[in-house]
């Protein structure tokens, strides 16, 4: 068994992928190609929209 270094899921050796030097499961590998606007990190960054008044 291999362990996904992103989500910690245990997957068989055949289902492990490499992503930026990390061993990841298929799900995480697919997440890596998720459009930026759906990624939590980028949705945080998007909150710096100039139209949003700062509280
Ligand atoms: Zn994973």
Automatic annotation (TrEMBL):
Protein name as annotated? TFIIB-type domain-containing protein
- Species for this entry: Dehalobacterium formicoaceticum
